[in-house]
Amino acid sequence: MTNPLDRYRKSAEEKPPAEQDGYSAYGVVSPAPRRLSIRRRKEAHRAPGYSYLIDVMWDGSEGKEIALVYSHAVVMVRGRNLQDLAQQLVMEKIGWIQEFDPKRWDKPPTAEPMIESVEYTTRVTSPVGEGNKEDEGK
């Protein structure tokens, strides 16, 4: 007999990144999430709502840069093999993205997606001790 609550439980692929074995650049979740959790290596994590996302821009087949334009901020995601991530962001299927941290994980294979830096720029001052422009890629 199955538990009727099983359909509401998170599957293994929806585990938060901290609970996963090895590095994964992003997570596709179902049903479609209301927010995108942005997990950064050094600074506070953010979770802006998809309802504030105005535009998704990327470099096509290069797969090195994605810009998420929100009503209050711009998020620059840089890395490698990010083509699928861009397409999934357009469809609002991504629950989280995370920067690669060499202190936590081994470097993923060259063919795998990897987020090297996330730059979150906003005009709103954060109460978590960040300034107007953050650059965690340094």
Walkthrough of the structure:
This protein is mainly β and 138 residues long. It has one domain. It is built from one helix and seven strands. The protein has one helix at residues 83-90; strands at residues 26-28, 37-39, 53-58, 65-70, 73-80, 94-98, 114-122. Strands 3-4-5-7 form a four-stranded antiparallel sheet, covered by helices on one side. It has a three-stranded mixed sheet with strand order 1-6-2, covered by helices on one side. The protein starts with 25 loop residues before the first strand and ends in a 16-residue tail after the last strand. Mean pLDDT is 85; it is low at 134-138.
How are the elements arranged and paired?
Blueprint: E1 26-28, E2 37-39, E3 53-58, E4 65-70, E5 73-80, H1 83-90, E6 94-98, E7 114-122
Parallel strand pairs: 2-6
Antiparallel strand pairs: 1-6, 3-4, 4-5, 5-7
Broad structural category: mainly beta
Estimate the mean pLDDT confidence: 85
Evaluate the radius of gyration. 15 Å
Query: Strand arrangement, largest sheet?
Result: 3-4-5-7
Which shape, going by the Cα principal axes? Answer: globular
The residue fraction in helices comes out at: under 10%
Distance between the termini: 53 Å
The largest sheet is: 4 strands, antiparallel
How many β-strand stretches?
Answer: 7
Q: How many DSSP H or I helices?
A: 1
The unreliable regions are: 134-138
- Total count of domains: 1
Instruction: Please provide the ordered H/E string of secondary-structure elements.
Output: EEEEEHEE
- Determine the strand fraction and express it as a percent band: 25-35%
